[in-house]
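Input structure tokens:
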């Protein structure tokens, strides 16, 4: 799928809890994840050489507004891989600490990747689309002088309409994507080829959306709009194979009928390859989630090298309806507010044993999370062949590392084990009696049945 475009930088700052005693690097500290301030410096409690010690947190000086630099394009996938977009490199965003009373506080790794528009850490970027309740999306349909639509607008909209049902499934009914199409083709002023690729720059993409919105403005009331979808004639090959998300920050969105709109997506010819799940992926970016596939290539002999981080898990990776298990990860659902804090067990101490219920079901404990460092946590969830994950080849516990310092497309999530002979990661789920050790933490599945996976987690 497409890497989202971005336009500005965010400035990172840390807000620490009060401190009343001088702290030095290497001093003993009470609890992983705890922060404090001493003599004008910030410190965080980490585990080092089996000891809990204070580590100084380096503050990052704000950078001037950057200019976009191209990002390499992944060239391998089970299905055509669209072109990536340029991206600047801003400074990390501010992350206020969670309340001490929150039992998940030590598992909420902060946004620390420096992008500013999408991230795997907490809190979710404020410019992004709301993730609960009704999300009103106006759908504008466009064709071109050199690619005039022959299908009806109703037929075109049918290609994406089921995305609403998938969001309903993945969010356990908490998010209602309400798409409101205007069944009319609006003719763009230039040939389709002149707009391709849509993701060549933020300014180009924004201008394309602005033109389409202006054509439809007389017919559409945008005053209650949360997001905008520009649906191009699906037969227009000339528009290219890159239909990116629109994720503006710092006021660079649109104000239409008095409503500021910073999120949306634009389709291209690749909609025909991906189907409606394309929209769930791009709106995943509009919700603030990063790409989980790889932007760079390491092994030319491996046709799945572009998916070496998460294989066929998670629709921010290989978002295909034929993928092994494309539903959102438990971490992503928690970040989006679709899982409650009491459905997350943030491990303290050296060990824990918990029954994790399948992520496809609404109730029960959904993840055990182990704090590793300032930006890393290990997550264990349970997967079953249900719903959009019906193609799952092996039921069991899915174990992955979150690193909020890694940008979109650079491995913010990595699934373990990652066997070289299992390019699609089909066997990465752990069944009964199986275990894996990651970052000094051993996860063993003690029992696995229809109710979920009983896992034992030990910090070595």
């Amino acid at each position: 799928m497409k890497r989202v475009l971005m336009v500005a930088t965010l400035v990172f700052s840390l807000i620490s809890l009060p401190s009343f005693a001088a702290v030095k690097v290497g001093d003993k500290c009470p609890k992983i994840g705890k922060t404090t301030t001493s003599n004008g410096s910030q410190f965080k409690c980490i585990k080092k050489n089996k000891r809990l010690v204070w580590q100084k947190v380096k503050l990052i000086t704000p950078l001037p507004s950057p200019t976009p630099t191209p990002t390499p394009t992944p060239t391998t996938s089970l299905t055509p891989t669209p072109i990536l977009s340029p991206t600047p490199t801003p400074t990390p965003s501010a992350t206020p600490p969670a309340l001490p009373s929150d039992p998940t506080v030590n598992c909420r790794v902060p946004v620390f990747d420096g992008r500013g528009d999408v991230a795997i850490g907490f809190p979710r970027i404020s410019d992004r689309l709301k993730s609960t309740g009704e999300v009103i999306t106006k759908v504008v349909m466009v064709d071109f002088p050199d690619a005039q639509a022959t299908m009806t607008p109703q037929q075109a909209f049918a290609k994406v309409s089921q995305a609403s049902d998938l969001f309903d499934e993945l969010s356990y009914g908490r998010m209602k994507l309400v798409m409101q199409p205007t069944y009319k083709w609006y003719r763009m002023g230039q040939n389709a080829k002149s707009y391709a690729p849509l993701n060549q720059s933020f300014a180009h993409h924004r201008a394309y959306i602005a033109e389409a919105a202006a054509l439809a403005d007389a017919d559409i009331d945008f005053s209650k709009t949360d997001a905008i979808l520009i649906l191009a004639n699906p037969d227009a090959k000339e528009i290219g194979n890159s239909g990116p998300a629109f994720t503006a920050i710092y006021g660079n969105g649109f104000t239409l009928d008095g409503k500021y709109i910073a999120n949306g997506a634009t389709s291209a010819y690749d909609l025909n390859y991906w189907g409606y799940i394309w929209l769930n992926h791009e709106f995943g970016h509009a919700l603030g989630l990063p790409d989980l596939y790889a932007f760079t290539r390491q092994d030319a002999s491996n046709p799945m090298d572009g998916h070496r981080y998460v294989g066929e898990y998670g629709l921010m990776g290989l978002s295909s309806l034929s993928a092994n298990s494309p539903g959102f990860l438990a971490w992503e659902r928690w970040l989006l507010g679709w899982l409650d804090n009491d459905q997350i067990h943030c491990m303290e101490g050296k060990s824990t044993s918990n029954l994790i219920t399948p992520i496809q079901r609404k109730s029960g404990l959904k993840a055990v999370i182990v704090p590793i460092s300032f930006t890393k946590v290990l997550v264990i969830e349970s997967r079953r062949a249900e719903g959009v994950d019906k193609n799952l080849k092996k039921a069991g516990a899915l174990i992955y590392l979150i690193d909020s310092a890694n940008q979109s497309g650079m491995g913010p999530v990595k699934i373990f084990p990652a066997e070289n002979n299992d390019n699609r990661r089909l066997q990465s789920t752990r069944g009964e009696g199986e275990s894996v050790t990651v970052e000094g933490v051993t996860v063993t599945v003690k029992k696995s049945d229809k109710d979920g996976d009983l896992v034992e987690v030990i910090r070595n």
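Residues 143 and 187 are 5 Å apart (CA to CA). The longest strand covers residues 175-187.
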